[in-house]
TrEMBL record:
<keyword id="KW-1133">Transmembrane helix</keyword>
<dbReference type="GO" id="GO:0006890">
    <property type="term" value="P:retrograde vesicle-mediated transport, Golgi to endoplasmic reticulum"/>
</dbReference>
<dbReference type="GO" id="GO:0005783">
    <property type="term" value="C:endoplasmic reticulum"/>
</dbReference>
<feature type="transmembrane region" description="Helical">
    <location>
        <begin position="63"/>
        <end position="81"/>
    </location>
</feature>
<keyword id="KW-0812">Transmembrane</keyword>
<comment type="similarity">
    <text>Belongs to the RER1 family.</text>
</comment>
<dbReference type="GO" id="GO:0000139">
    <property type="term" value="C:Golgi membrane"/>
</dbReference>
<dbReference type="InterPro" id="IPR004932">
    <property type="entry name" value="Rer1"/>
</dbReference>
<dbReference type="Pfam" id="PF03248">
    <property type="entry name" value="Rer1"/>
</dbReference>
<protein>
    <recommendedName>
        <fullName>Protein RER1</fullName>
    </recommendedName>
</protein>
<dbReference type="GO" id="GO:0006621">
    <property type="term" value="P:protein retention in ER lumen"/>
</dbReference>
<comment type="function">
    <text>Involved in the retrieval of endoplasmic reticulum membrane proteins from the early Golgi compartment.</text>
</comment>
<keyword id="KW-0472">Membrane</keyword>
<feature type="transmembrane region" description="Helical">
    <location>
        <begin position="41"/>
        <end position="57"/>
    </location>
</feature>
<feature type="transmembrane region" description="Helical">
    <location>
        <begin position="143"/>
        <end position="160"/>
    </location>
</feature>
Length: 193
């Protein structure tokens, strides 16, 4: 009897080792993709185009598409939002905290609430799950899709308007393209490049 118990415990241990090995390989693959930002996004956009093609050809699964769109909008807003919300910074003056505009001010980099890699990973994973859902008829709930499209466009416009106002009010830009770069000289002076 004890041998049978040890044997079943051994198989659980073996299953656990297999799951751990698969998990480590998967994490290793993800770690290798970190420096390939543009390639990752190209494959994700191709995956999104494949999903859209599937929806257009199948003429269904609009609820899945709508849920995926709302989830992606939520991720995008988290990607655009700073990790520490300036509206909650009680040490700020009446205008709120700002990024430095002069060389003698403290440098505070923009840190996202949702980092780029996690944003990409969540978008890709959710798109794959959405694509898998399109192969099951139980998710193909009949709905008048133009209403969902109009509701999504309205929600997108309202959300982005609020986010842009927040960016203007607290003077931050969540993208690094086009920002001035500063370099210190030998005398310790900061110069704009």
């Amino acid at each position: 009897m004890e041998d049978e118990l040890l044997g079943s415990g051994g198989s659980k241990s073996k299953l656990s080792q297999i799951c751990t090995g698969i998990s480590q390989r998967y994490q290793g693959f993800l770690d290798k993709t970190v420096p390939w930002q543009k390639v990752r996004w190209v494959y994700t956009i191709l995956l999104l185009l494949g999903f859209a093609t599937r929806i257009i050809i199948a003429q269904g699964w609009y609820i899945v598409t709508y849920a995926l769109g709302i989830y992606h909008l939520n991720l995008f807003i988290a990607f655009l939002t700073p990790k520490i919300d300036p509206a909650m910074d009680f040490d700020a003056d009446e205008n709120g905290p700002e990024l430095p505009t002069r060389a003698n001010e403290e440098f505070r980099p923009f840190i996202r609430r949702l980092p780029e890699f996690k944003f990409w990973y969540s978008v890709t994973k959710s798109t794959v799950i959405g694509l898998i859902c399109t192969f099951f008829d139980c998710f193909n709930i009949p709905v008048f899709w133009p209403i969902l499209v109009m509701y999504f466009i309205t929600l997108f416009c309202i959300t982005m308007k609020r986010q842009i106002r927040h960016m203007i009010k607290y003077r931050y830009l969540p993208f690094t393209h086009g920002k001035p770069k500063y370099q210190t000289t030998e005398t310790g002076e900061v110069q704009n490049m």
